[in-house]
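Translate structure to sequence.
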């Protein structure tokens, strides 16, 4: 029996039941860190919370929630800025797509994806770069499939031959961390083949000559040696992308979760500027968001450098608008992002955190270090629907509502579409809506906020954000969602952004888009004799993030956590499917069973973060952060595989 046949025969997964988290139904407090939680009244829990936050003025941080509504995120960032006087507010956007926001903002002045989902259905070429969208973004992938059925060609760029790649006309498998050399080689080939859109470049961009000089050394042969992608495949993609009438360039965490994630994004944006594939229907840039409202959280100002509507905190005019509406002073400086807040915990300069709906104890890179830093806080409050591992470290736990079913409001998806969310069921027990909790805490700290309902919050946001001003609840209902920008109630903007770049009138065209001059910078965690395998991480179709929400539901696809190896490496290490091994990095180790995937290449392993209670993959990952966006290098850890001499369990 061949190795491939043996692997196929072993495909029947072991029976697996994920850990089920019990829904929080009443407040919990503990009288000291050494004592267990006890049930408390809302009055006691909120009084303790307000007192703890009052003691921490000047050393406070807030983690807002990418799964909660826009309205909640708006009130949360307002709480941080108005009640606590700080811009230290952030969310899991920092963990995933902050480099996308930073890169798009640097090029175009706006951090949103430039296209609509519908455009993917009517484009000529789709490039899925660092994105297994079939598993990680299955709804978006349905639009991709419609595009393919309508005649679009698709190319997949990913170190793994994923399920997404099975639908591609061509698959390019670069070595992990070599996306910039690959993008530069594609750019050089486009230039040398005379396929650059010189009219668009001269009209709408700056820095082309410097960019051309930057990519000139990246010949196809050099790129093949560095990336591992055959020169012919690089040239094929370059010609296909440049010659297409319309093309969509899509990416996810395979691009952003690197120590140079923003540079990776800029390298991809360069290709769109080189070819004019932006600012037109069917041609654009699509960073695919993984959670239902990670786009909206940033739009609402739940980030340390932007006010709602993506308005720069350093802009005095923007601050004056909010200060007048809020009757408060907005600190005229950027706050700490999520990564910087964790560093400040260790330094002792951040003493209290209000964590709403996030689970950083298991989602942060180098999770053992993250837990140690959370424990160093003087005061931690977690507001959530489950007693997560992060909640288990808290001093006060507040039971919240599930935003997708137990509250009213809106969310914003990857195409910038704002859609209504409606309350369908009553929350269990004493669980309360996040906004009500925030407002009561604000009152205890001297700020009386009264919102009749979510619509009232949204109307306040609309009055302050030009991008959302025309989105009344009635219009959102009637049109089943509206993409921003929507500056007035009488019309709708095109579904794509930056059409201004095609204007012939310089005044209407506005600021040109600069090419990003970024250099290749290999992964921080180098492979060597001691740690010879490159571990990359990602998602599977059956589970969601750290498994807190998805673990309570059965799936016929779910098989728990494995370390996935290629057949050659499995044979080299003498391991078989289901055999438990020790997986070790320079930061920690875990025990996991082996899975063999022919879609991997020698020297490359794959794991997910879905089952941290059984196999905590983030004990292996490295906190090497993008200096611009603060996102960690989840995709490029160095590991080794050790056989176990005796059963580990």
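Result:
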């Amino acid at each position: 029996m061949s190795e491939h046949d043996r692997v196929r025969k072993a495909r029947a997964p072991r029976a697996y039941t994920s850990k089920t988290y019990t829904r929080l139904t009443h407040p919990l407090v503990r009288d000291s860190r050494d004592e267990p939680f006890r049930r408390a009244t809302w009055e006691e829990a909120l009084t303790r919370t307000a007192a703890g936050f009052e003691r921490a003025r000047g050393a406070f941080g807030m983690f807002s929630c990418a799964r909660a509504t826009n309205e909640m995120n708006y009130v949360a960032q307002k709480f941080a800025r108005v009640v606590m006087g700080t811009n230290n507010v952030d969310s899991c956007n920092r963990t995933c797509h902050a480099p996308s926001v930073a890169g798009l903002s640097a090029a175009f002045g706006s951090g949103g994806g430039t296209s609509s989902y519908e455009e993917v259905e009517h484009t000529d070429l789709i490039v899925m770069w660092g994105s297994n969208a079939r598993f990680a973004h299955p709804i978006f992938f349905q639009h991709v499939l419609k595009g393919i059925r309508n005649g679009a060609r698709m190319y997949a760029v990913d170190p793994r031959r994923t399920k997404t790649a099975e639908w591609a006309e061509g698959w390019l498998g670069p070595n992990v961390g070599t996306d910039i050399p690959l993008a530069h080689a594609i750019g050089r080939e486009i230039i040398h083949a005379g396929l650059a859109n010189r009219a668009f470049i001269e009209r709408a961009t700056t820095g082309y000559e410097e960019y051309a000089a930057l990519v000139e050394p990246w010949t196809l042969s050099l790129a093949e040696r560095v990336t591992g992608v055959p020169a012919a495949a690089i040239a094929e993609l370059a010609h296909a992308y440049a010659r297409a009438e319309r093309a969509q360039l899509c990416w996810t965490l395979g691009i952003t979760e690197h120590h140079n994630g923003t540079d990776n994004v800029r390298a991809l944006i360069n290709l769109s500027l080189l070819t004019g594939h932006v600012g037109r229907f069917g041609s654009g840039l699509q960073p695919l968001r993984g959670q239902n409202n990670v786009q909206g959280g940033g739009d609402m100002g739940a980030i340390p450098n932007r006010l709602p509507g993506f308005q720069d905190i350093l802009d005095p005019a923007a601050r004056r608008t909010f200060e007048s509406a809020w009757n408060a002073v907005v600190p005229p400086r950027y706050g700490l992002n999520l990564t910087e807040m964790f560093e400040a915990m260790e330094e002792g300069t951040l003493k209290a955190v209000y964590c709403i709906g996030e689970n950083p104890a298991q989602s942060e890179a180098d999770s053992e270090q993250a837990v140690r830093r959370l424990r160093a806080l003087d005061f931690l409050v977690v507001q959530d629907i489950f007693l997560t591992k992060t909640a288990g470290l808290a001093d006060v736990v507040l039971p919240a509502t599930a935003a997708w079913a137990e509250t009213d409001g809106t969310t914003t998806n990857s195409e910038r579409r704002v859609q209504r969310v409606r309350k369908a069921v009553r929350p269990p027990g004493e669980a309360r809506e996040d906004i009500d909790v925030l407002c009561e805490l604000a009152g205890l700290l001297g700020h009386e906020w009264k919102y009749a309902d979510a619509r009232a919050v949204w109307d306040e946001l609309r009055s302050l954000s030009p991008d959302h001003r025309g989105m009344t609840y009635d219009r959102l209902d009637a049109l089943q969602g509206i993409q921003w920008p929507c500056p007035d109630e009488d019309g709708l903007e095109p579904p794509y952004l930056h059409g201004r770049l095609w204007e012939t009138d310089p005044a209407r065209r506005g600021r040109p888009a600069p090419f990003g001059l970024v250099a290749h910078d290999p992964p921080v965690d180098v492979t060597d004799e001691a740690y010879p395998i490159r571990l990359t991480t990602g998602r599977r179709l059956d589970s969601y993030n750290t498994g807190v929400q998805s673990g309570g539901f059965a799936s016929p696809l779910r098989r728990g956590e494995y370390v996935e190896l290629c057949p050659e490496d499995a044979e080299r290490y003498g391991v078989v499917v289901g055999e438990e091994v020790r997986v070790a990095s320079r930061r920690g180790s875990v025990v996991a069973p082996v899975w063999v995937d022919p879609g991997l290449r020698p020297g490359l392993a794959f794991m997910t973060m879905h089952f941290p209670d059984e196999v905590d993959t983030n004990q292996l990952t490295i906190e090497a952060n993008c200096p611009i966006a603060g996102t960690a290098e989840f995709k490029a850890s160095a590991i080794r595989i050790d056989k176990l001499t005796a059963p580990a369990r």
